[in-house]
Design goal:
- The protein has 401 residues and is mainly α.
- The chain contains 14 helices and no strands.
């Protein structure tokens, strides 16, 4: 590689690091607080209802607002939305960190979720805009790696901070983190001007979102997130019922998250090198995740660990391939809107997976719940596998005009 090529590569890496940090921040913000809300609400009236409401605020805000902020990123520029979201996240975290009023926790958590709804799809859009299409796999693989680190470190680091200084210290660290990432991004991430685009009607948007280039990767991402959420939430329950201690069940969840993190950059590089295709890779990842869900029925520590490894690896395969496929099938001027809508699909999977497993478990058994989600994921694989790998954006009717 020439000196010019090396310099350009280093410049690109410098631009990407703040985006990786933003991905870590949104994941750490979701799990770092959520894992420690139980202790905060334990001595309050109707604590489970309060806990459920606080957990729902963050995710609920993301479900409603990510498509909105994704569209805004296309209109005014993704960097502006990224910085605004990070600054708002820091402000919302500061609101509770500086107050002794527990009631402000509701406002702070809602503010965090709304802010994450802004900078998360904006960061994804910038990952696509700042990297050439031939390197999208590696870029999204690295972005997913650091986001997975946030999900992994959130409960651990958040728990350590809460043990030292309570929930207010957790929010203080989050405020400092978000402010630091905002300052870093302001300096290092270049301004990416919004691209001119023709008017898009509601019908045009509906047609684009109904196209297989959008819904197939989004369906795969939703299945991956659903399987991951079920693994994190219900594998410890299975382990406990099998007589395994909290150390073993906690290790299984850590293995799941670690596998998801490690696999993503490798899969992204393989996609860029042409060693795998997006469609075939998505289908393989979904089958791997489905197999992991089914493996949870194998009794004892072996079943628990096999399930964790397979679910984590399957999620790690799907995530970079899904986002790279979305970027390839989307007009560049609509990337923010597409990433926001795809993030909505992931949030629905995040909520839907546990609801399906929990609902079936109430009517039958927890094992039946795992098998049901495994079967649904396998069926969804058939729909995803029918697609073809895309290498160019698919224009909408208005784009063709």
């Amino acid at each position: 590689m020439t000196d010019t090529g090396t310099t350009e590569e280093a410049r690109l890496r410098a631009r990407m690091w703040p985006l990786y940090a933003a991905g870590f921040t949104t994941a750490f913000g979701a799990h770092g607080v959520a894992a420690n809300l139980g202790g905060f609400t334990a001595d309050r009236h109707q604590s489970l209802l309060v806990l459920g409401g606080l957990l729902a605020l963050y995710d609920g805000a993301e479900v409603l607002l990510k498509p909105v902020f994704g569209t805004l990123a296309d209109r005014i520029g993704a960097k502006a939305v990224l910085l605004g979201g990070l600054i708002a996240f820091a402000a919302a975290s500061t609101l509770f960190a500086l107050s002794d009023n527990p009631g402000l926790l509701w406002a702070a958590r809602l503010g965090q979720g709304a802010a994450a709804s802004a900078f998360s799809p904006a960061a994804s859009a910038l990952v696509a805009r700042l990297n050439p299409a031939a390197k999208h796999g590696r870029a999204f693989g690295s972005y997913g790696f650091y986001k997975s680190l946030g999900y992994t470190a959130g409960p651990l680091l958040g728990g350590a901070l809460a043990a030292v200084g309570g929930l207010r210290l957790v929010f203080t660290v989050m405020a400092v983190l978000a402010a630091a990432v905002a300052a870093w991004a302001a300096v290092s991430v270049p301004y990416v001007a919004p691209l001119p685009k023709t008017r898009q009607t509601v019908l045009d948007l509906a047609r684009r979102l109904a196209d297989g280039g959008f819904w197939r990767p989004t369906l795969a991402l939703a299945c991956a997130t659903g399987a991951l959420s079920v693994g994190v939430g219900f594998l410890p329950v299975l382990g406990h019922r099998a007589g395994l201690g909290p150390v073993v069940t906690g290790a299984a969840v850590s293995v799941l998250a670690l596998c998801a993190a490690i696999v993503q950059p490798r899969v992204g590089r393989a996609l860029d090198a042409g060693q795998i295709g997006a469609t075939a890779g998505l289908a393989a990842g979904m089958l791997l995740a489905a197999g992991g869900l089914a493996a949870a029925l194998v009794p004892g520590v072996v079943g628990l660990l096999v399930s964790a490894v397979a679910i984590g690896a399957g999620t790690g395969v799907i995530t970079p391939l899904g986002f790279a496929a979305l970027a390839a099938a989307t007009p560049t001027e609509r990337l923010g809107q597409t990433m926001g809508a795809a993030e909505l699909g992931r949030e629905l999977g995040d909520a839907g997976g546990p609801l399906i497993v929990g609902g079936v478990a109430v009517a039958a058994t927890l094992g039946a719940g795992f098998l049901t989600l495994a079967a649904l994921t396998a069926l969804a694989t058939l729909a995803v596998r029918r697609g073809s790998d895309r290498t160019a954006p698919v224009p909408t009717p208005s784009d063709r005009a």
